[in-house]
Amino acid sequence: MIGNGAAYLLSMVSARVLSPADFGALGALLGLLVIISTIGIATQAFTARRVAVATDDRSLVEGEAIRLSVIVGGSIIIGGLLLAWPVGTIFQIPLIAVASGIASIGFVVIGSASMGVAQGREEHVRLSWAFIANGVGRAAGGVFGVLVLQSVTGVGIGVLVGCAVGALIAYRIICPGAWGPRISAGVPIEFAHVVHALFVLFTLTNVDVLLARIFLTEDQSGEYSVGVLLAKIAFFLPNAIIIVLFPKMTGGNSSRTVYIATGLTAFLGLIVTSFSFFFGDLVVRILGGAQYTELGSEAWLFALEGSAFALVQVLLYARLATQDRSAVAAVWVALVVLVVIVAGWRHDSVAEIVTTVVGVALALTVVGLVMDRRQSPGVPIPVESAE
Questions:
Q1: Is pLDDT of 387 > 80?
Q2: What is the pTM of this model?
Q3: How far is CA 79 from CA 36, 170, 194, in A?
Q4: Mean pLDDT, all residues of the chain
Q5: Any long-range contacts for 67-72 (C-beta under 8 Å, 24+ apart)?
């Protein structure tokens, strides 16, 4: 919660420093970074699962994960330099902000591998400190950058420095010296599946802010970015539930764990959505300032969107824990449906886009619950067998 809270602090400060048009550009950039950061989240989930099911020498599995993260992280940094111009042109974001922002995800991946080691070991104290280091480092760097440079570029540069520091701290706290001599056969395929599954999920949960940037006016896209802050709070607030329970989902009979995770996530979502319904103006004023108070009546829709997507995330993680690959297809369908509907006709206002997203999110939640009840838990494949 501290790590995620720091991330929201960055957005709240930026909303007050930047103009609505620039904040819309920042919202689009942060949306892109969240989508790309799924590689880091996938690295953590992949590492946590392999460490949790390892039956022999865990240090070999941990070292292999760190080696893989360095290779992947370096590739992302290079990719950020190559993609800066086309991405910045399409979404009207400063090129340096795009390049530095994407490069920051390279360090996030390395830090995520370290946190995956702690998650798989179920060493929650070290995992918590690493989360705080990454979240606070990223936010502090971004806040410093936006206050000094008064621009989206300042945020990008500051976030890059903060993520690099956070990754170093996570590595030193959890697994100092860990390094693998090679990448085992089968590891890239398993990692690619986890990346694919979470990439589709996080694209689905962030594509609306990109669509808003394209179809709405600059001021409207800034307003939508403030609403997305609330959606992200509802989405990430139950994150600790899945982090703690995910290693337990790798067992042969994980139904009870999945039910507990689903129930707790739904309960938190109900609280956030209800509070936003009754106190929408207050929530929007806190998140974005007085200039966005017109969004107050629609705040609960953003909270409902994030809560529904949080449930989808729990159900997808349950499938990943047992190496069931069928659930990704439903997320793909939801993504295509959402983009087609918004791009086709429901894009004339903030309300039209957010209600479309809510409808798709709730429908996918129902589909996920039905799939989870019909599919029996898989049998986890030990690391040694996969190799």
A1: no
A2: 0.76
A3: 11, 24, 20
A4: 87
A5: 67/179, 67/180, 67/181, 67/182, 67/183, 68/43, 68/113, 68/180, 68/183, 68/187, 68/191, 69/43, 69/109, 69/110, 69/112, 69/113, 70/110, 71/183, 72/39, 72/43, 72/106, 72/109
